[in-house]
Amino acid sequence: VGRFDLHPYAALPLVWRGWGLRPEIALRNTFYTERLLPSAPGTVGRPVADPVNRRALEAAFELRPPALSRVFDRTLLGRQVKHAFEPRLVYRYVQGVDSFPNIIRFDARDILSDTNEVEYGVINRLYARRATSGCPPNRAQEQETGSSKLETSNCPAAREILSWEIAQKYFLDPDFGGAVVNGRRNVFTTTAEFTGIAFLTEPRRFSPIISRLRAQSAGAADIEWHLDYDTRKGRVSSSIALVNFALGHFAMGGGHTFLHAPGETIVSQPIPSPERFNQFRTLVRWGHPNKRGWNAGATV
Asked: How confident is the model at residue 100 (pLDDT cuts 50, 70, 90)?
């Protein structure tokens, strides 16, 4: 199968008094030398030597209001703490993909579909730096006290220790231009880029709410927790927790992955596919892949 993909785009980032605007427009033309003929439900279909020329117009508009931040007067474990609140709003529009069932899918280029959607979310960030005498807690106080760059050059830099992102999408076109197949697990560009967990088995307005929590210490430990909650079905779609700890050449970690797969109707499979997955993993390592000499590791 031959595939030729042309995707020119233009974007114009604008900043005005803390507000961030980024309009973007793109044209996409993808030519396939063969097309897919859908057959019975639950089957892949069969390719035929009939070209498909997919044309699409893409537009997006991203709005980022000024971030709200606060530097706390009290220290925590000898460190100054700063909290930042960063909201965002993104509108996306894709039109022209009227041959989605006939596209032979190899990779992410082939799951482009029509969409008319709004994505909204917020990111909370915590920064910390070691409290040092003579170092103002923020830039405003530095200007008020008249501290010079020479006096503050030895002050420790702030480091992000925690970030928590919450986001959701609202689909103004719930069937994505007719690309959604009822009773089947549908994966499109807009859903795969938002969360790696499939959730479309029928037309819908709201995506699951995603939560992405990351915490990192001075370098010894880091924690990640990814959670998807489906408000339509009232359940947790997925939960992925990872914990890693390193001390010198010794490192250990663990993880837990829970997945509640969407119910899919498969005609050709007499045995129903599993819906829930629970996986645990542990890892112990001595050394590092880039360290010369002996290195060892084990995972279960």
From this structure: very high
Q: Is the pLDDT at 129 greater than 50, yes or no?
A: yes
Return the higher-pLDDT residue of 83 and 77. 83
Which helix (H) or strand (E) element contains residue 149? helix 149-152
Per DSSP, helices labelled H in 167-299 are 189-194
DSSP state of 34: S
The owner of tokens 């819908």 is 204
Specify the DSSP class assigned to residue 173: S
What are the tokens at 62?
């991203």
Three-state SS at 22? strand
Q: CB neighbours of 180 closer than 8 A, spacing ≥ 6?
A: 174, 186, 200, 202, 203
Structure tokens, 277:
């997955």
Place of tokens 């499109």: 188
On average, the pLDDT of the chain sits at 88
Residue from 95, 115, 111, 114 nearest 103 by CA: 111
Contacts of 144 (CB under 8 A, 6+ apart): none
The helix (run of H) or strand (run of E) holding residue 227 is strand 221-230
Of 275, 268, 271, the closest CA to residue 45 belongs to 268
What sign does the CA torsion over 6, 180, 119, 212 have?
negative
- The closest of 260, 255, 205, 214 to 236, measured between CA atoms, is 260
- Distance of alpha carbon 192 from alpha carbon 196, whole angstroms: 5
Is 33 in contact with 79 (CB distance < 8 Å)? no
- Contact between 56 and 28 (Cβ < 8 Å): yes
Going 181 to 106 to 228 to 241, the CA torsion angle's sign is: positive
**Distance between CA 235 and CA 255 in Å, rounded?**
21
Q: Across-strand partners of 284?
A: 252, 298
Q: Within 10 Å of residue 183's Cβ, how many Cβ atoms?
A: 14
Looking at this protein, which amino acid is placed at residue 299? Answer: T
